[in-house]
Amino acid sequence: MKLHTKLSLFGLSLSLCLLLGITTNIYAFTEIYFEIQPVIEHGDVPNPNVLIVLDPGHGGYDKGCSGAKRHEKDVNLEIARKLKEYLERTSTKFEVILTRESDQFISLEKRIEIANHKEADLFISVHCNSLPHGHASGSETHVAGLDFVNANQNDYLKRHNFIDPTALAKIKRDQLSQAEKMLILKNSLDLAALVSNSLGKHLPYKSRGVKESGFTVLKYLKMPGVLVEAGFLSNSKQEAYMSTSEGIHQIANSLATAVENYVVHNKLEEEKQLAYERFMNEIQIVKEFSETTYSIELLLTKDKPLLYYEPRWDKLESIYVVKKGDFYHYRTGYFTNMKAAQNVIPTLLSIGFENPKIIDVPPKK
Question: HSE-up of 48 (CA within 13 Å, CB side)?
Fold first, then answer.
């Protein structure tokens, strides 16, 4: 959830107030000016918008299921395009990406890669359903369960879940922790409940509810995701409905309403904007002093900055970030002597920073 921006950073200058209580031992506001561009790379800036990846299932030679007249791949794309249009109309803070824009085949690993690489906030895979008997009716909403809950349906699973073993091994190497996965599953269930309710309320057929399924395209995401079966193409009435502009409109509008409700409930727009502003206000180059000074390092992250802060960070009077190579150093305060820095350590420990470390800021040569 960061790192996708169209902003121009050249020439942007910011100033930072670094006050931590003992003002006689800390360099003042007017002394801290810096250029942001030399410090951060274009891709490092967190995305202030809510990024939603829409995944029209199948495509190209992979037609998906078929009704009497329609192929699933075509219906999926129509729904996804209309949903993108509605979401972008809903909020200027929504940024929407399609995993495919046309009738082309996209592998499962590529769909997963698009969502994970862009660090999307939400993922919705759009599909249609089919059963041998044409009487089945209704929409379904799927989330990734803890295992393949339909493991006995081998042909079904192979059709929907095949992924190149080499690509899968690469995806697994970069997986989230168990705790992070459980949080994503919880959020996926919240999104799925809103989607299922909205489809059941607005479409002329029932919602068959939320189901936990081991779809590969959901199983390896790094954000909340659902797979929607908009209706049964094997049901002649539902195929006819999904072949009309009004049917496509109602399905897309139902999904857009669910997404909007999820974003509002979870305050995603506010969270993304706060993360962006916080990052831009904190990042800076190393200050060059005429004599050795001291700072306190609180945390170190690699490759990407910390975007969401626990409450303990709000208790600090200053936070700033120095990027060196692939690492982001989170620090607080500039002190003219070691004693002043040492006096702050007990306070930092008391508010939850376990390993505050006093570091030297070398003098300008």
Answer: 12
Going from the C-alpha of 161 to that of each of 24, 131, 214, 226, 355, the distances in angstroms are 63, 18, 8, 15, 44
Q: Are strands 293-302 and 327-335 parallel, antiparallel or unpaired?
A: antiparallel
Q: How many CB atoms lie within 10 A of CB 185?
A: 18
Q: How far apart are CA 15 and CA 29, in angstroms?
A: 8
Instruction: Show Cβ contacts of residue 314 under 8 Å, excluding neighbours closer than 6 positions.
Output: none
| d(C-alpha 163, C-alpha 17), whole Å | 51
Which of 218, 243, 270 is the endpoint of a domain? 270
237 CA to centre of own chain: 37
E strand spans, 94-206: 94-98, 122-129, 139-144
Domain count for the chain, please give it: 2
Q: Same domain, yes or no, for 345 and 232?
A: no
Concatenated DSSP letters of 205-219: S-EEEEEEE--HHHH
- What is the separation of C-alpha 276 from the centre of its chain, rounded to a whole number of angstroms? 14
Same domain, yes or no: 259 and 300: no
Distance from C-alpha of 120 to C-alpha of 95, rounded to nearest angstrom:
9
Q: pTM score, two decimals? A: 0.69
Task: Kindly report, residue by residue over 21-67, the tens digit of the pLDDT.
Answer: 333 233 322 222 222 233 344 446 788 999 999 999 999 999 999 99
Nearest Cα residue to 303 out of 328, 329, 281, 283? 328
What are the b/e assignments for 12-22, b being 16+ CB within 10 Å?
eeeebebebeb
What is the model's pLDDT at position 140? 97
Domain that holds residue 266: 50-270
CA–CA gap between residue 312 and residue 154 (Å, rounded) = 49
